[in-house]
Amino acid sequence: MLLAELVSTSAEVAATRSRKAKVATLASTLARVEPGELEVVVSYLGGALRQRRTGLGWRGVSDLPPPAAEPSLTVLEVHEAFEAMSALSGAGSQLARKAAVDTLFGRATADEQAWLRAIVTGNLRQGALDAVTQEAVAQVAGVPLAAVRRAAMLAGSTVAAAGAAFEGEEALAAIGLEVGRPVLPMLASSAPDVAAAMAGLSDGGATEVAIDAKLDGIRIQVHRDGDDVLVVTRSLDDITGRLPEVVEVARSLRAERFVLDGEALALTDDGRPMAFQDTASRTAQDTARDGQSAVTPHFFDLLHLDGHDLLDSPGHERLAALDALVPERHRVRRLVTADPGAADAFARETVSAGHEGVVLKDLSAPYAAGRRGAAWVKVKPVHTLDLVVLAVEWGSGRRQGWLSNIHLGARDESSESGFVMLGKTFKGMTDEMLAWQTERFLALETGREGHVVHVRPEQVVEIAFDGLQRSTRYPGGVALRFARVIRYRDDKAPGEADTVEQVRTHLPA
């Protein structure tokens, strides 16, 4: 299959909001897949390379050769090129990677170059998530969608499930939970407060609910089979060698085979959670270093225990088994109640203790691996700031032709410009907002640098964010976590924006 066919499919998918139309377009492309192409095509249709790391970022694909006049690249040639890049390391690898980029992109047309750049940098915004791709796979393979979804959850990827789907229902059914093979984690939906979360769970038939502290750490899944222990992240990356203390805890438990779901985080001497970036920095190291804070595991679910799969067991049974296996010091703090007042008090205590919020859980629900359903509902306090837009980046994919990613600044009297940058975001923007801000910021333009349009610091924007962390990436020394736009504040002048000192008050202690 030519890459041009995938690029055309991506454009069609991005151009429609209809889920039915997206599925039909993806299915039409999948039906034309040649032998040996399926895994690559499914991955690309979902907007991801097969390689977890290629050594490329925006800088690596910013200076490209002239595009080809006609399409010639096949999807397998593209995959092989990125596979070769991912294997480069050591002296001379940077030059070799640059040469490989020039060779690959030099054979790509202008549209193909834009698509390749977007998929390399994680900016392919076509509105085709895994769930939509799974529907297309089920449709073309002629198998039940539920079977494809379950296989994807248990195999850890839609790509793996797609291969089985084209072999038939029996092949899909053969994919089960295996200790040592990570599964996609269950995810939580959101609610604005505890009362709304409890009301939603009650509407679903729940009476008592479990309320877990939501820890601001690294999501981990721990597999043990005898002395063999595997620790993976939410994205299923193997970090076993980086967390020897988690391995030690797993080996201390009185069972031979199990799969646990939880969080790992670094704690201060008095037991309070350290900033997320401290945990992230610790778990980013290949091996633990002397003097670094220990990372402590805290588990909140049990998916398998000594030959018994618990995925389909109700929550209360999984929690009973968890409590019998894992000592309290390594379990997430939990309250089981039907009282909204008690639930709200527990949530306030949890936040006061330095944690992110809470997760409310239906005790009758199974573990829906890989799904964000109504059985788990997270509640986190929302912080807001009034900041000033300093620059804007041209969008790609569905946002092509619009100014999208905004650079955010706080007031800073020590800065020559009067503002200091804290981060960027494109989250929370509707099509109407994108159209408005494109016109607005072009009118404020002061200059351009590549795909970045610099603007006069006049427009105030209200930003919601989940937390703050120290950062050397931005001049202000801090960065917003999960920033998203609430609204533009035309009623506020830039002199009324929050100062960097006010922003820093949100830093964790």
Explain how this protein is built.
The chain is α+β, with helices and mostly antiparallel strands and 509 residues long. Helix content is 35%, strand content 24%. It contains 17 helices and 19 strands. The chain has helices at 3-15, 19-30, 38-45, 75-86, 93-106, 110-120, 130-141, 145-155, 158-165, 169-173, 194-203, 244-252, 276-284, 315-325, 340-352, 431-443, 500-504, and strands at residues 187-190, 209-214, 218-225, 228-233, 257-266, 295-305, 308-309, 334-337, 357-362, 372-379, 383-394, 403-411, 419-425, 445-449, 452-455, 460-465, 467-470, 478-481, 484-488. Strands 11, 12, 13, 14, 15, 16 and 19 form a 7-stranded antiparallel sheet that branches. A hairpin with a 7-residue loop joins strand 12 (403-411) and strand 13. Helix 3 packs across helix 9 and helix 8 (145-155) packs across helix 9 (158-165). The longest helix has 14 residues, at 93-106. The protein is globular, with a radius of gyration of 24 Å. The relative contact order is 0.09.
* Number of DSSP-assigned strands: 19
Distance between the termini: 54 Å
- Give start-end ranges of low-pLDDT stretches: none
Rough outline? globular
- The secondary-structure class comes to alpha+beta
Mean pLDDT: 89
Helix count equals 17
Rg over CA atoms: 24 Å
Largest sheet: 7 strands, antiparallel
The proportion of residues forming helix, as a percent range, comes to 25-40%
Approximate strand percentage: 15-25%
Considering the chains and any ligands shown, give keywords for the structure.
single chain; 5-stranded mixed β-sheet; 17 helices; globular; 509 residues; 7-stranded antiparallel β-sheet; alpha+beta
